[in-house]
Amino acid sequence: MENKYTPQGYASPSAIIITLAIGILASLVLPIIYIILGQLIPNIWFIAIIAFLLGMGLGFFIDLGVKIGKLRNKKIVTFIAIFCGLLAFYIQWVFFDTLIYSRKGFTFNLNSADLKILLDDFFFLFTHPNILFQEIINLNEVGSFRIKSTGNVNGLLLWVIWAGEFVVILGGIIFAVLNGQVIRPYSEINDSWMIKRKFLNRIPVVENKELLLNELNNRNFTVLNDQPLLDNETNYAEVIVFESTGDPTKYISILNVTNPTGKAKDKKVVNMITFYPLHNANI
Fold first, then answer.
1. How far is CA 221 from CA 17, 100, 251, 256, 282, in A?
2. Phi, psi for residue 270 in degrees, rounded to 5
3. DSSP letters of 231-262?
4. DSSP code for 194
5. pLDDT for 76 beyond 60
6. pTM here?
7. Residue 202 contacts residue 226 (beta carbons within 8 Å)
8. What is the maximum span of the chain, computed from C-alpha positions, in angstroms?
9. What is the mean pLDDT of the chain?
């Protein structure tokens, strides 16, 4: 079994509060931007894309909270992600419903009185989920948009589309946070996140992962030494080192790389080893 870094589970009240506060703030702002973009470009495929981007955006800000708060507990981070995802989905419905049933509809031509009415309606719906849900049911009966060459989409199909929207947003946020800062190596000695070394060693393509792991387990770290002769090759492996000054443990990730043209857009990578610990290794 491959040895790899495991988050220590640290979760102080301040770390949780910082992460949650940033996540909640993002959950209030990003859904409003999402609805505005959806109204400007009411295309089902565009909306599907920005729904995923909404989830990824929420994940980015929660990830920022994890980094600042030094939160290292995947279960708590997942819970925060789900909570913020649910809140964001609720906020986007409140804002969407407010616009749909507003006197002027969707427009940027609003004076101070119009904005006050819009805010009052928003907070009323936010604090009355039963009324919001009934209006969603009513909206489902008539449809909220149409697909080219068809009538308004409503009924079961619309429920399915809305459910898909929810899954995409929540899936995006969970994917982002569980592949973000919380899984990156942390130096408990220095109480700080380890830093990714800027210079990446190049080694031959890893054909046999188990053989390489066996060499590392036997402390043969010369297999990770940079080989300058590979600089002009199109197939090689990159050794990424995460380290913290004074910490005797480093972590490495190894990627097999294929880059036939040498251009960044054509670079393809395959993850072979992730955050493997090296103790007192000189690399």
1. 41, 63, 12, 18, 8
2. -130, 125
3. TT-SEEEEEEEEE-TT-SEEEEEEEEEE-SSS
4. P
5. yes
6. 0.85
7. yes
8. 73
9. 90
SS3 state of residue 189: coil
Q: What is the dihedral of CA 221, 223, 229, 232, to 10 degrees?
A: -110
Which two structure tokens, joined as six digits, stand for 12?
A: 């102080």
CB 35 within 8 A of CB 92: yes
Take residue 2 and report the two structure tokens written for it. 């491959």
**What's the burial of 162, exposed, middle or buried (CB within 10 Å: 0-12/13-18/19+)?**
middle
**Which residue type occupies 188?**
E
Please state the φ and ψ torsions of residue 82, each to the nearest 5 degrees: -65, -45
> In this model, does residue 147 exceed pLDDT 80?
no
pLDDT digits (tens, 9 = 90+) for 79-137: 999 999 999 999 999 999 888 877 666 666 767 777 888 888 899 999 999 999 998 88
Asked whether the predicted pLDDT for residue 27 surpasses 60, the reply is yes
The residue among 56, 59, 61, 75 whose CA lies nearest residue 25 is 61
Specify the pLDDT at position 140.
83
pLDDT tens, position by position, 194-209: 999 998 999 999 999 9
Which tokens is 188 given?
């408990």
- Six-digit token string for 45: 């495929």
Residues 279/217, Cβ–Cβ less than 8 Å? no
